[in-house]
User: Fold these one by one.
Assistant:
Number 1:
Amino acid sequence: MNPSIEAIVPCGDSALLLVLGAKADKATTDKATTDKVARITQVLRTHPFPGWIECVPAYVSIMIHYDPLQVYAQCPPGVTPLTQIRRWIDDALARGEAAQAPVNRQVQIPVCYDQDFAPDLSGLAQAHGISEAEVVARHTGRDYWVAMIGFLPGFAYLGGLDPVLATPRHRQPRLQVPAGSVGIAGEQTGIYSLASPGGWQIIGRTPVAMFSPGEKIPGRLQPGDQVRFYAIDRKTFLTWGEGHR
């Protein structure tokens, strides 16, 4: 088995999980892990095996979905589908060893940190003994990377948060968090792509649509993207409009 993969775990008869070794609770502070997941995902998508359907990258793993009947039809006598898939994956990774890491997109996201859009900004600042302005400065002063997409369609978990801003989720989640809300949970920050219940510490909101189901690529952010937030005022937020999408 390729040394980049720690384990291959069957998930029913039509999916398996590639485990890449790092701990998920450290993934958002480890960009090297994100880059490895992105590179292997790119290689596997470039060299799909018979019966391949899709792969879904996460913090430290990649879920591969496949058609078991097509895989079984390609198995030599005495070879199980799982063994055959292992061989195909090893072959794909061997052919892709020289592949360059994916080029990370640079994405800038406007955020309004006005109190009407930031119900937790004041409390978070007080909890860390800093001003609200310093919270905003620290949040906009970092480059983040998209560690994975999950929870909601288009919801990006971002690594690279300033350790000073690390704050636990609310013990009691809100029943409704507006789409575009920018929050902090533990050592990560993220953007609610859709209105949803949630327990993250909300410190601002972006007027940019993070998930547009009518688009060819509906999610604005993708794993591996590099993200930078910048502050806008309330008037700019309210007049953002379609022309800025």
Number 2:
Amino acid sequence: MGAFLFAGLLSANLQAACEVDRYDETATLEKIYDGDTIRLTDGRKVRFIAINTPELAYKDRPAQALAVEASQSLKQMFQTSKRVHLLYGVDRKDRYKRLLAHVFTEQGKNVAAELIQQGLGFAILVSPNDGLHECYFAQEQLAIKRKKGIWAHMDYQPRQANELTREMTGFQRIEGRVEKIGHGKKWLWLDLAPLFSVKVLRKNLKYFEDQPIELLVGKRIRVRGWTAYYNGKLRMSLSHPAMMELMD
């Protein structure tokens, strides 16, 4: 079997694994904001579960690399039909009151899985919305292997924790060695550098049973998520081990 044919069959099998046999709702698409957010005709906004795509230009902030391509790819998926199937997460809304859902075309194609496979977005997992996550991360591995999109672009290489500056907020992949772990009433803190810490809610420690947080001291890890600067540090929340890789 030729390499390209095999890759095509593998891709088709992975896409099939990202499909479902039921939906919570079917609606109509009105507007595409970017690669991972849409608006329905009734005015509700939907943020896709499991993916983060590059940001389009906003005010004085320039577009990130491949942001336009992600948005265009999404538009193409809904070119023939604006019907949208939604499968909601356990948490149905985010802090911006957007619906959180797995989104499918009228034909049943998983939109986030397709974008991830094209290398136009990162697979993410924010607990408790962990449905289909194994499929999404498998799609990402396929994109990495093929060096598609973000996986071949210098802008999306991991940053080193000890080289961060306070301006490096937003979605990041950051690599460093866990220097120490701090304990709070609700959180555990993993210090990777003087300027950078990862925080894990105690209620989410149940997801880390196979990789206990306490055993990470001295280990080199790579984490992904959103950073914010406050109290003199860049901080990232981590709610599931799928967002962390052991590097040694």
